[in-house]
């Protein structure tokens, strides 16, 4: 766990680092049951230091769950967590927007979280293109 914490703290892209650790956790699959739930909990726990006001949710609708499962499997299969990290960053931004709308006027700290998420989104998107990873729209859900 200390290595995971160091990896996340040294990263300039906390969502990508948390995504990588989530995919690694799922690849190891340490429990008989509950690995997915534990990985989502771990993902949010790791992000709390960087984005304390944001709880990232995955798979709230049937199509969202299907996309989530597909991207997790594809990331594990191809050993490319960047495939999942872009999806995770989109969900983090969406979760942040929903939470901000529910709170009414946003505080400076919450606006700071949003600007960091936008910067992370462009960073991950650019990295995926540089590495030749497919865009989310290019992946089939079959």
**Radius of gyration, taken over Cα atoms and rounded to an integer in Å:** 15 Å
Uncertain regions spanning at least 5 consecutive residues:
135-142
The general outline is globular
Supply the number of helical segments: 6
Q: What is the end-to-end distance?
A: 34 Å
Order of helices and strands: HHHHHH
How many distinct beta strands? Answer: 0
Approximately what portion of the residues adopt beta-strand conformation?
under 5%
Q: Give the biggest beta sheet.
A: none
Structural class: mainly alpha
The total number of structural domains is 1
Instruction: Tell me the helix content.
Output: 55-70%
Q: What's the pLDDT, averaged over the residues?
A: 75
Explain this structure to me?
This is Fido domain-containing protein. Residues 1-90 form the Fido domain. Pfam families: Fic. InterPro entries: Fido, Fido-like_dom_sf. This protein is globular. 70% of the residues lie in helices and 0% in strands. It is built from 6 helices and no strands. The longest helix is centred in the C-terminal third of the chain and has 23 residues, at 108-130. The N and C termini lie far apart (34 Å). It has helices at 2-10, 14-28, 35-47, 62-78, 82-103, 108-130. The protein is mainly alpha-helical and 142 residues long. Helix 2 (14-28) runs antiparallel to helix 3 (35-47) and helix 4 (62-78) packs antiparallel against helix 5 (82-103). Residues 135-142 have low confidence and may be disordered. It has one domain.
């Amino acid at each position: 766990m200390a290595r995971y914490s160091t990896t996340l703290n040294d990263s300039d892209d906390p969502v990508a680092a948390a995504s990588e650790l989530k995919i690694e956790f799922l690849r190891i699959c340490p429990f008989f049951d509950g690995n997915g739930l534990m990985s989502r909990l771990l993902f949010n726990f790791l992000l709390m230091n960087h984005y304390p006001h944001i709880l990232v949710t995955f798979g709230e609708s049937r199509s969202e769950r299907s996309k989530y499962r597909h991207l997790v499997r594809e990331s594990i299969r191809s050993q490319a967590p960047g495939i999942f990290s872009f999806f995770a960053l989109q969900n983090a931004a969406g979760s942040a927007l929903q939470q901000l709308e529910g709170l009414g006027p946003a505080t400076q700290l919450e606006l700071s979280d949003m600007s960091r998420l936008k910067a992370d989104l462009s960073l991950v998107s650019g990295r995926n293109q540089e590495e030749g990873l497919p865009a989310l729209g290019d992946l089939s859900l079959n």
